[in-house]
Design brief:
Elements (H helix, E strand, L loop, with lengths): L2 E2 L9 E2 L19 E5 L2 E5 L4 E10 L2 E8 L4 E9 L3 H16 L9 E7 L2 E6 L4 E2 H18 L12 H20 L2 E2 L8 E3 L5 E3 L6 E2 L18 H4 L9 H16 L9 H10 L12 H10 L10 H4 L3 H6 L5 H8 L66
Antiparallel strand pairs: 1-2, 3-4, 5-6, 6-7, 7-9, 8-9, 10-12, 11-14, 12-13
Helix pairs in contact: 3-5, 5-7
Organism: Dermatophagoides farinae (American house dust mite)
Family: Belongs to the protein kinase superfamily. STE Ser/Thr protein kinase family. MAP kinase kinase subfamily.
InterPro entries: Kinase-like_dom_sf, Prot_kinase_dom, Protein_kinase_ATP_BS, Ser/Thr_kinase_AS
C-alpha cells in the first residue's frame, strides 16, 4: 500500500516509495520473444504468433502505435513498435521504463504491461485509452459545430469543452506531475497529445521518453521537448537551468488550447512563435466565457516570470482544481468519443444535459481509496520486471497520436 504524506494530512497525498531504485537499462538481448502479463485477473502470454493487429492508433518519428488482439483470450491492448537499432532511441525507451516502473502507484499515469524484442523491434504493451486530448477537443469542437449548424445557429465554439472537463484534466495532470516530482523527475513535454482520455472520463499522462532527473530541483537539458509548449525560461540561451514550473507553463498552454480550440501563438513560423512567447504578454482567455476561477488558473500558469508561477502543491489548492477534482465527466467523454461512430449523414446526438460535479470516489495520486472496478479500464495489473518496458505516445510536436 502506498505511503501517505503526513506533512499534508488534509490532502491525503500519496508518495512514492523511499528512494525508488533506478531501473538499469537492460540490453535488448535480455528481452524475450514473449512475455506474460496480468490484466483484470487474467494472465496471458503475449507472443507475435498469437496476436493480430486491429487498427493503427498513431505514428511518429519513434515508431507507431496500434491496437492488437490477443487471439487466445480476445483481450485487446495497445502496442508501440520501435526500431531498436539506434542507441539514442533505446536510451529514450529505457528512460520511459524507469519512470513508469516507479509510477505505478499513480493511476493518473498510464499503465504498462511488458515488452518483447522481435525482428529488431521493441514491442511495448500498454493499456488502451480512447484518444489523446488533442484529438478529443477537436472532436468536441466539430460536434458542437455540427449541432449548431443543424439548429440553424452560427458556428460558435463557446463552451465546447465544459469547465468540469477542464478542471478534471488540470487535477489529473497536476496530480501525475506532483507524483513524478516526488521522484525527482520532470516531464518536459506537456501538451495535448501526451494526455490521454477514455470513455470512463479517466485522464492519464503519458510519454516519459524525454523526461529528466532533477538535481537540486533543477533540470539543465534545454533541447528536450516540443518548443511550441516550452516556457520562456527554456527558450533563453545561457540559462543555468529550469525547474518544474516550466511544466506548469506548458500545462497552462495546454488548458488554454483545449478550452478555446486553438493554440494561442503563431503556428506557421517557429521563429515568430518563440519571439512571441519571449517578448509578448502571455495569452489571456476571452472574457465572458469562463469562470473567474479558470481565468485565475490560466493567468497564474502563464506567468512569464517562473518564480511567480505556482508549484504543484500550490496548484492543488486552487479553487478550480478543488471544485472539479471529483467531477464525473464520463457522459461527456462518451458523447464526444462516440460521435466518431455516428454516420456523417445522421444528425449528431444532443449533448448531455450537464456534466456532474458530484463527488466520485476514485483512486488517484492524492487519495487513498482503491480504484473502482466499474470505472477502471485496466485494474489489477501485475508487472513482470524481467522484461517490462513501456511508452505511450510519440514525441513529435505534431499532435498525431490518436491512441
Amino acid at each position: 500500500m502506498p505511503k501517505v504524506n503526513r506533512k499534508f494530512p488534509n490532502m491525503n497525498l500519496i508518495v512514492p516509495p523511499d528512494d525508488p531504485p533506478l531501473v538499469q537499462p537492460p540490453p535488448t538481448s535480455n528481452l524475450k520473444r514473449s512475455t506474460k502479463i496480468r490484466i483484470n485477473g487474467t494472465t496471458i502470454e503475449i507472443d507475435p504468433e498469437n496476436t493480430k493487429p486491429v487498427k493503427q492508433l498513431g505514428h511518429g518519428a519513434y515508431g507507431f502505435v496500434e491496437l492488437i488482439e490477443h487471439e487466445p483470450s480476445g483481450i485487446q491492448l495497445a502496442v508501440k513498435r520501435i526500431c531498436a537499432s539506434k542507441v539514442s532511441d533505446q536510451d529514450r525507451l529505457f528512460r520511459d521504463m524507469d519512470v513508469l516502473v516507479k509510477s505505478q502507484g499513480c493511476p493518473h499515469i498510464v499503465e504498462f504491461y511488458g515488452a518483447i524484442y522481435w525482428e529488431n523491434n521493441l514491442c511495448l504493451f500498454m493499456e488502451i485509452l480512447d484518444a489523446s486530448l488533442d484529438k478529443f477537443y477537436k472532436l468536441a469542437y466539430k460536434l458542437i459545430s455540427n449541432n449548431n449548424n443543424n439548429d440553424g445557429q452560427q458556428n460558435d465554439h463557446t463552451n465546447a469543452i465544459p469547465e468540469p472537463v477542464l478542471g478534471r484534466t488540470a487535477y489529473s495532470v497536476v496530480s501525475a506531475l506532483h507524483y513524478l516530482h516526488q521522484m525527482r523527475v520532470i516531464h518536459r513535454d506537456i501538451k495535448p497529445s501526451n494526455i490521454l482520455i477514455n470513455r470512463h472520463g479517466q485522464i492519464k499522462l503519458c510519454d516519459f521518453g524525454i523526461s529528466g532527473y532533477l538535481v537540486d530541483s533543477v533540470a539543465k537539458t534545454f533541447e528536450a521537448g516540443c518548443k511550441a509548449y516550452m516556457a520562456p525560461e527554456r527558450l533563453v540561451p545561457n540559462q543555468k537551468g529550469y525547474d518544474i514550473r516550466s511544466d506548469v507553463w506548458s500545462l497552462g498552454l495546454t488548458l488554454f488550447e483545449i478550452a478555446t480550440g486553438k493554440f494561442p501563438y503563431p503556428t506557421n513560423d517557429l521563429f515568430k512563435q518563440i519571439k512571441s512567447v519571449y517578448e509578448d504578454d502571455p495569452p489571456k482567455l476571452p472574457q465572458g466565457r469562463y469562470s473567474q476561477q479558470f481565468h485565475h488558473l490560466i493567468a497564474k500558469c502563464l506567468e512569464k516570470d517562473h518564480q511567480q508561477r505556482p508549484n504543484y502543491l500550490q496548484l492543488l489548492e486552487f479553487d478550480f482544481l478543488k471544485t472539479y477534482q471529483n467531477s464525473d465527466i464520463s457522459d461527456f467523454a462518451k458523447y464526444v468519443l462516440d460521435s466518431e461512430l455516428v454516420n456523417e449523414t445522421q444528425t449528431p446526438p444532443p449533448p448531455p444535459a450537464a456534466v456532474a460535479v458530484a463527488p466520485v470516489i476514485e483512486s488517484n495520486c492524492l487519495a487513498t481509496s482503491p480504484p473502482s472496478s466499474s470505472s477502471s479500464s485496466s485494474s489489477s495489473t501485475t508487472i513482470e520486471m524481467d522484461n517490462s518496458i513501456t511508452t505511450m505516445s510519440n514525441n513529435n510536436c505534431n499532435n498525431n497520436n490518436n491512441s
